[in-house]
Automatic annotation (TrEMBL):
<dbReference type="InterPro" id="IPR005064">
    <property type="entry name" value="BUG"/>
</dbReference>
<comment type="similarity">
    <text>Belongs to the UPF0065 (bug) family.</text>
</comment>
<protein>
    <submittedName>
        <fullName>Tripartite tricarboxylate transporter substrate binding protein</fullName>
    </submittedName>
</protein>
<dbReference type="InterPro" id="IPR042100">
    <property type="entry name" value="Bug_dom1"/>
</dbReference>
<dbReference type="Pfam" id="PF03401">
    <property type="entry name" value="TctC"/>
</dbReference>
């Protein structure tokens, strides 16, 4: 998907454009900031052009006119999102900096690195979770299985012989296969790659036999019949594959794998500014064009406010931190 520019021309700002029903205490600070011409900075901790970046630009294009203030998307990639997260952790708590954060930044990195330059619990205030990606269990057509039960039986009869790819050690895809295999008491050979594209290429070629794969990364493979989805690792059936049953429907509940992204601000940001951005994000993910574009990426727009978002982060930590530590994965260089 082509990169889209996240900058908008500076709009004319009035109290009406900021929302007639807003309390003056909330509207006035936003109005003052917009009149100074200072843009809000939206940090993406990954390179331009990826799903995180594209979705951030979709959101900021929808939010800026409602906010009455320009928004600049600032890409700061590196160290599994730690560079961008650290930048926001050291920014002023004035509501002028937002971080697009995934569960890697907020959860996985706590166990994947011995030391982080930021504290996921203390440095940030959750604003809103706005999108999630669900995974599918997919196999190469040569593997003689077409549902999860057949796959488990096939692997059990051939311990460590079936190869399962992932975009990298410690990725959500890797963690999904590790948890699935442990709970199903099966053993496979994990083949990590440097990114989703080479992993999908080798799955299509039959070099590896299976993987947990999000729709966005595997769409071309699925549509070309070079990879076969055999189960959806989601709570509900996927919009793109309404006839594909979930792992729970196939008799394996508790296997919901994917990734989610949300917005954070610096801890200590005034509640009124957090609430204002939460409201704007909620409006953006209900915008028809934003919904359409997200769905084209295989993403599901959602909206969880600050309290629900914090609960989601804590639930993810309870699930994944013990597994990462048990696996002994460490990404320090």
């Amino acid at each position: 998907m082509p990169k889209r520019d996240g900058l908008l021309d500076r709009p004319t700002v009035t109290r009406r454009s900021l929302g007639l029903g807003m309390m003056g205490a909330l509207a006035a600070p936003a109005l003052v900031r917009a009149q100074t011409g200072r843009p809000l900075r939206w940090v993406v901790a990954y390179p331009p052009g990826g799903a995180t970046d594209v979705i951030a630009r979709l959101l900021t294009n929808a939010i800026a006119p409602r906010l009455g203030q320009p928004i600049v998307v600032d890409n700061r990639p590196g160290a599994a999102g730690s560079i961008g997260a650290d930048n926001v952790a050291k920014s002023p708590a004035d509501g002028q900096t937002v971080l697009s954060a995934d569960m890697g930044i907020l959860v996985y990195n706590r166990a994947l690195y011995r030391q982080l330059p930021y504290d996921p619990d203390k440095d940030f205030a959750p604003v809103a979770l706005y999108v999630q990606f669900s995974m599918l269990l997919a196999v190469h057509p040569s593997l003689p299985v077409r549902d999860a039960r057949e796959f488990i039986a096939y692997v059990k009869a051939r311990p460590n012989q079936v190869t399962m790819a992932s975009p990298g050690v410690g990725s959500p895809h890797h963690l999904a296969l590790e948890r699935f295999c442990r709970l199903m008491d099966i053993r496979v050979t994990h083949v990590p790659y440097r990114g989703a594209a080479p992993a999908v290429n080798d799955l299509m070629a039959g070099t590896v036999q299976a993987m947990f794969l999000d729709y966005a990364s595997g769409a071309a493979a699925y549509q070309g019949g070079k990879a076969i989805p055999i189960a959806a690792a989601s709570a509900d059936r996927l919009r793109e594959y309404p006839n594909l049953t979930t792992l729970a429907e196939q008799g394996f509940p508790g296997h919901e794998y994917g990734s989610a992204q949300g917005a954070l601000m610096r801890a200590g940001t005034p509640d009124g500014l957090l609430q204002r951005m939460d409201t704007l994000i909620g409006e953006a993910v209900r915008d028809e064009e934003v919904v359409r574009r997200m769905q084209e990426l295989g993403a599901q727009p959602v909206h969880l406010g600050p309290a629900q978002y914090r609960d989601r982060i804590q639930a993810e930590a309870r699930t994944w931190l013990p597994l990462i530590r048990e696996l002994g994965i460490n990404l320090d260089t």
